[in-house]
Amino acid sequence: MSDYQKVLMASCYRTLVGLMNLFDIETKTCWNVTRREALDQIESCEGLGDPACFYVGVIFILNGIMMGLFFIYGTYLSGTQIGGLITVLCYFFNHGEATRVMWTPPLRESFSYPFLVLQMYYLTYIIRTSNINRKYYIALCLSNVAFMLPWQFAQFILFTQIASLFPMYVVGYIELYKFQKIIYINMISVVLCFILMFGNPVYLSSYYSSSLLMTWAILTKRNKLQRLGGSELNIWLIQGCIWWFGTIILKILTSKILGVSDHIRLSDLITARILRYTDFDTLMYTCAPEFDFMERATPLRYTKTLLLPVVMVIACLIFKKIFRDILSVLSANTYQRKQLLENGELVFHTLQLLAFTALAILIMRLKLFLTPHMCIMASLICSRRLFGWLFNRIRFENIIFGILTIMSIQGCVNLQNQWSIIGEFSNLPQEELLKWIKHSTRPDAVFAGTMPIMASVKLSTLHPVVNHPHYEDAGLRVRTKIVYSTYSRKSPKEVRDKLSELHVNYYILEEAWCIVRTKPGCSMLEIWDVEDPSNAANPPLCSILLHDGRPHFTTVFQNSMYRVLKVN
Questions:
Q1: Helix 492-501 with 474-483: angle, nearest 10 deg
Q2: Three-state DSSP class for 409?
């Protein structure tokens, strides 16, 4: 896991505050908030001089710049500024489906995703343009690295790019020399990330890295491969099978060799989803709402803003072009083969649309890739290459105005709903807990509990904790599994002994976690029954601890939400 983005933001914050203090310029405004009886006054601040405001402000600025990039991207792809306008309007009209930055700004995807948009824009430019300046390849490499470093799932998204580009090379939608350079740039990006992450082998054992190596091998031996099959179609199928099965085999081998087969990746979650495989680790992810299947209401919401119908029409026209192209190539039409290069970026975006659709259906959280990409594709409604035959019969402006009018009916309603959500955060039970920890326990007392509360304990009290919300790390998963055994059916003594081995002094038990159930099979007790069937007949340990955990645990603090157990 990378913290480069946080280090960079911290450096910018210190530099800004230092300069403002040097010139005696106020950077924040603070005031005391008087709360109801029995609650202490608290200080509240706003302005870039406040660390939290600076942190959120930088994320919002980055995502605001991304909207300008969307306009440029849509304009370039469609060939008209109206296409860029449609992209931006579609994004805002479907804002609730396109991002989570307004609810949880510090998410890694909030740092990472804007650089994917930049990366795809450069890639589109490279695919479309004949003579490419070296600086665009360098920009592609840097945007690759900026996308991958902050977010552990970025590698799988880049794998879908290679999976889209490879069939384009096979059929002839992209020149060989250009495709080779793109592959080399991606390889350099992986190596740079590997170095910047101080030799973390996870980058080298991903499907993304394996697909790059497999593609490089096929390009190196392309002349021999072309002699294996007789017809053009056979050559395509041979290369496709070698690439697909070779990537899977190479990924498995590199994972075993580098010893990172126990890391959770997006590909593992998708595999578990497809094969209906469940264990403790996969259920911890797939039981979360954001990792569930796409909601049935999502396509309906896309339809109400006209985004889905517009994109479907565009995709159908492009697939029609692809079908004709393939038939022409198979019939050895040399002229038509040259014409393929003119449609390269359209084919790329359509294949990416298919990949993002599949990912979003399997994992709802990945709508953040599908929805913005649909907005980019919607800009092609202005493309004369696709709709020139229609624009010659009906005025172009009338068609676009009609589409935007229908989009805005539901789009404006969605915007009003977004703007109407106003509230404030308040969690008095947690505040009581953190105050008790800060004033009633030793600074070196070690705490354990659920991952969300552990993040708050570490941030607010600076006490050592044994687990935190970075579940992708194998060692941390092992510790978290031990910590979560208090919600299983194991014996109090067994759990106490395991916690003692981790040097835990206090355990924070949350009563809600004993009974909460997001969907069938997803309560902590049901998850543990899958993982630990030998104890399925025993009573829930959580109920025992809530009643009386002695002699192994002693309750030292309790309120409406939390109970702190001292590990005896």
A1: 140
A2: helix
List the beta bridge partners of residue 29.
46
Residue type, 354: L
Single out the residue of 70, 62, 68, 69 nearest to residue 150, CA to CA: 62
Tokens of 539: 């009573």
Scan for tokens 């406040």, then name that residue.
50
CA distance 406 to 273: 37
The torsion angles phi and psi of 29, rounded to 5 degrees, stand at: -120, 130
- First-to-last alpha carbon distance for the chain, in angstroms, is 34
Neighbours of 466 (CB within 10 A): 19
For the chain, domains (ranges, CATH) are 4-49 (no CATH), 53-263+294-416 (no CATH), 428-567 (3.40.50)
CA dist 365 → 21, 166, 347, 351, 361 (Å): 42, 26, 25, 20, 9
Tokens linked to 495 = 């759990």
Segments in the chain below pLDDT 70: 1, 37-38, 229-230, 260-277, 332-341, 471-474
What is the rounded CA–CA span in Å between residue 557 and residue 546?
12
Contact in structure between 352 and 160 (CB atoms under 8 Å):
yes
Residue with tokens 């994917």: 116
Which of 180-183's residues contact partners 24+ apart within 8 Å by CB, and which partners?
Answer: 180/219, 181/132, 181/137, 182/123, 182/126, 182/140, 183/212, 183/215, 183/216, 183/219
Report CA-CA distances (Å) from 376 to 78, 117, 133, 177, 496: 9, 10, 25, 27, 54
Give the tens place of pLDDT for each residue, 85-126. Answer: 999 999 999 998 999 888 888 888 889 999 999 999 999 999
> Tokens representing 160?
């879908």
Residues 374 and 398: beta-carbon distance below 8 Å: no
Residues 400 and 86: beta-carbon distance below 8 Å: yes
Degrees to nearest 5, angle at CA 461 with 8 and 550: 140
Quote the Cα angle for 458-462-463, to 5°: 80
In the structure encoding, which two tokens stand for residue 135, read together? 């600086």
Burial of 61 (0-12, 13-18, 19+ CB in 10 A): exposed
User: What pLDDT does 89 receive?
Assistant: 95
Amino acid letter, residue 18: G
Which helix (H) or strand (E) segment holds residue 82: the answer is helix 81-93
In terms of phi and psi (left: phi > 0; alpha: psi -120 to 50; beta: otherwise), the region of 470 is beta
- Give dist(CA 29, CA 304) in Å, integer: 43
pTM of this structure: 0.88
Tokens of residue 291, six digits: 């990792």
CB count within 10 Å of CB 416 equals: 9
Cis preceding linkage at 551, omega within 30: yes
Angle formed at CA 314 by CA 311 and CA 315, multiple of 5 degrees: 85
Written as six digits, the tokens of 81 are: 């500024």
Q: Which residue in this structure is represented by tokens 């599994």?
A: 481
- Give SS3 for 375: helix
